[in-house]
Amino acid sequence: MPEAEQDLAKTRRFLKERLQRDYTTLRGYAEERSNVRQLLQRTAEMGESNSLLLIGPRGSGKTTLINAVLVDLLANKSFVENTLIVHLDGNLHTDDRVALKSITVQMQLENAANGRVFGSFAENLAFLLQCLKAGGKQSKSVVFILEEFDLFCAHHNQTLLYNLFDVSQSAQAPICVLGVTCRLDVIELLEKRVKSRFSHRQVFLFPSSERFEEYVTLCRDLLSLPTGSSIQAAAERVDGLQKIRSEALCFARNHFDPGEYSFSPRVRESWNKQVAKVLASQQAHRTLQSLYDFDISEAFLKSFLFRLVAQLRPQSPHITAEKMAALGSQFEGDDKIELLCGLSVLELCLIISIKHHSEIYDRDPFNFEIIFARFSKFAKVSTTMQGVERSIVLKAFEHLRIGELIMPLSGGAGGGVGKVQKEFEMHKLALTYGQIHQAVQRYQALPTEVAQWAQSSLI
Which Gene Ontology BP terms does the record give (predicted)? Predict the structure, then answer.
């Protein structure tokens, strides 16, 4: 393989792995990161018990923040020696019994059970609580990380949450309970007795790119190749993950290892110069602006860049503004427009009839008879739609309803939808005029007279 192709393959693999498997690099959230770190430090070093909820939309970096804090604390020998980490996920641990078994394994309490077989959930819970309460301030600290915390609130009687919060409130073995959720109303999901045991510490995370310039800088950082010293520093940081003994923390085993890569100064400078040049262009800025307007989270940008990097080939070894624009247009796609472009010409004509009716009567509801009368006026002067039978038009109208392009009104005339003949059942349009306009423009092989009717004065 030529040297240039080898360099490109290595660059592509490095960027894809960093975009996909870097679970601990957190940008921004300095204050929130400090709060969580101090909480875990006090639990590990001073024997304090705490509880905290980390709340934010999906993709905002909640799990990454916890991972980054754990990596920071792994450099502290006392934290490694004096702390156990227990990781639970609401999607996996669907009830308290499954969660308790996982806790027992992760806390390495199988030997303490001395071969005992627990006949019930209550006995298992009592054994776990006895182990937690038996310790004092000098015992090992236990950090409970509860992903999808809101799903644990749906467990029967919230027994697990109540007991974890109860232990964290009492002066027993030091534990810290970290809940991670995207539900802003998660406190309201807690029962009164559970809520009384919770410390009510909450940390809110929201996407932090407040300015478009910061978004462009983030994009450049994610696409640039690092220097040798940066790779070495990152590799040393990742090596610290080996100190995590919890098998449940999968990110520690699957984390991207930058130490496997090295780039010559020539390759690095050439690549970074090309990336900077592309991102400085107006076309690239327009693409990034549309992405920024759609979703400012880093997770969304990484998804876009991963697909962009995956397109690199020996025949096309560079990222270009044209590639970014073409890929960006896929993210801007409207499913309703795609659905409209897949309709038959007759069905699209009915949509245009509905559009004209809505424009005249300010989006008043309509039924099949109203739309058929308007469509018939066009069909009389059209060579395309002449001779279409009423039953076929009714079938096309029903197809629009099945596709939810038009929606029946609840409680129509006659005391309910079920008491009205389908020809007279009232509907409303579930599309915008802009969506219809774009669909008419993009429709393949649309008869000219239909396109003109869509844009022209009303018939």
Answer: DNA replication initiation
DSSP string for residues in 254-293? H---GGG----HHHHHHHHHHHHHHHTSHHHHHHHHHHHH
Highest mean pLDDT: which of 239-253, 383-397, 407-421?
383-397
Indicate if the pLDDT at residue 260 is higher than 90.
no
Residue 321 CA, distance from chain mean position: 26
Q: Report how far Cα 306 is from the mean position of its chain's Cα atoms.
A: 15
Residue 406 φ/ψ, nearest 5 degrees: -125, 145
Q: Is the pTM of this model over 0.85?
A: no
Q: Is 415 left (phi over 0), alpha (psi -120 to 50) or beta?
A: left
Distances (CA, A) of 2 to 6, 9, 274, 314: 6, 11, 21, 10
Distance CA 394, CA 397 (A): 5
Least confident of 10-14, 126-130, 221-225: 126-130
Are 297 and 60 contacting, i.e. CB atoms less than 8 angstroms apart? Answer: yes
Distance CA 66, CA 146 (A): 11
Helices 298-310, 3-21: inter-axial angle, 10-degree rounding: 160
Distance CA 21, CA 64 (A): 11
Structure tokens at 96: 């308290």
Nearest to 407 by CA among 334, 336, 338, 342: 336
The second-level CATH assignment, the architecture, of 337-455 is Orthogonal Bundle (1.10)
Domain borders along the chain are 3-12+211-332, 28-204, 337-455
Q: What is the pLDDT of residues 191-246, one digit of tens each?
A: 999 999 898 999 999 876 568 888 999 999 999 998 888 888 887 777 777 667 66
Beta bridge partners of 178: 52, 145
Length reported for the chain: 459
Q: Which CATH architecture has domain 28-204?
A: 3-Layer(aba) Sandwich (3.40)
Task: Give the per-residue SS3 of 5-68.
Answer: HHHHHHHHHHHHHHHHHCCCCCCCCHHHHHHHHHHHHHHHHHCCCEEEEEECCCCCCHHHHHHH
Contact yes or no for 205/54 (Cβ under 8 A) = yes
Q: Which residue has the tokens 């239909």?
A: 450
